[in-house]
Amino acid sequence: MKYKHIEGGICAAKGFKASGMYCGIKKPSIDNLNPNIKHKNDICLFVSDVECNAAAVYTQNKVKGAPIIVTKRNLEKSKNKAKAVIANSKNANTCNADGEEKAEKMCRLVADELNIPEEQVIVASTGVIGQILPIEPIEKAVPVLVKNLCYNKNIEAATAIMTTDTVKKEYAVEFKIGNVTCHLGGMAKGSGMIHPNMATTLNFITSDCAISPELLQEALSEIVKVTYNCLSVDGDTSTNDMVCIMANGLALNDEITEKGESYDTFKSALYEVMANLTRMLAKDGEGATKLLECICTGAPDKDTAITVAKSVVCSTLFKAAMFGEDANWGRALCAIGYADADFDINKVDVDLRSDKGVVTVCKNGSGVEFSEEKASAVLSSDEIYIDINLNQGTENATAWGCDLTYDYVKINGDYRT
What predicted TM-score, i.e. pTM, was given to this entire model? Predict the structure, then answer.
C-alpha cells in the first residue's frame, strides 16, 4: 500500500477543526506569575463539520478515569456516533467522588455551545490521579475554544494534551480508496505510566473516509494489538488510556461496509499512523535517551512474535543496560526465555543494530564472540534495534520501548508536588 505522509495531524482530514488554550487547570508556578510568560495549553477541542462514525478502545486497568466511563456511555447511547472531542491535561479526573459529574459537565458545556446532542461528545483527561478537577476554568474556556475553532489549529490541540511529554506527537497520511483521495491523521500524548494493556495513553484519530462503525471498531481493535499494545515505557498501565477514532465520510468514497480491498487499504493507513505515533511515544518516554525497537521474526504465530518482542522492551534490566550502552545480551535472552510463549530457545538468534552498524551477540541460543568496542559504538546511537529471529516460522511483530535512566526516577519522584 502506498501512502503519502502529510502535515495536519487531526486536522489533516476534511472537515475537522481544532483549538487549544491555557485555561488554568495547571496552576502557575511562582516563576510563571509574570504576565509576559506564555503558559502551555492545558485544554483542547476538536470538532467535525458533520456527524462521524466513531470507535474507541480503553484501558484495561480496573481503576478507570471518569472520562473513560462517560465516553463509553456516550458512545453506547449515540450508537457510535460522535462529533466533538474535549480533552484536558494536568488533571486525570480519576478516583474522585465527583469525577463523572465533572466529565458529564464538560460534555454538556461543549454540546450546548455547538448545539449538538451531549452523547456525541467524547471527553478525555490526563494528568495527576486523585486530585479534584476544577470545573470553573473549563466553563470559561469552552466558549473560547468553540469561537477559536479552525481547520489548521491541530498544533494547539496537540500541545494541550501534553503532560511530561517533551514534544508534540502528530502523524497523518493521504491514501486512495478506489479513485477517491482520503486522509487519516492523529495526535497522541504519553511519556510515562505506559504499558501494553490497551489502550496506552491518550490517542485521537480522525479520517474523512466513509466506513461503517462496525468495521471502524474492528480495524481499530486489530491495529491496537500490533501498535499501542506493543509499547511499554515503565510497566504501569494508566487509568485514563484511550484511543478513539472518528470518520466523517467527507472524502465521499463509497462507504466501506464489508471486508475487501478498500477495508484493507483503510486498515493499512490506520496502521501507518498508529505505528508512527507509537514510535514517537516510545522515543519520548520519561527521561529516555534511546528509542528501543524490538523486531521478532521467524515466529510460529503472530501472538508468539508479539509476546517475545514485548518481553524484551519491558525488561527493566535490559532497558538499564541500553542506557549504559552495555551489550549485556544475556538480559535480552533472559527476557525472551521468560516470555509466555511456546518455542525452542536453542534456535534463537539476536542482533543489536543501529545507524552505527550491527553486532551479532547470540546464535542458536548461545553467545558468540563480538567486539565490545563495536558493540559500544552501535549502542551509542539514540535509536537501537533488537533483531530476534526465532527461526521457527514466518510470523513477525515489532514492540517499542525506551531505555531506563536516572531522569525517570527524578521526574516521577516529585511528579505531584
Answer: 0.89
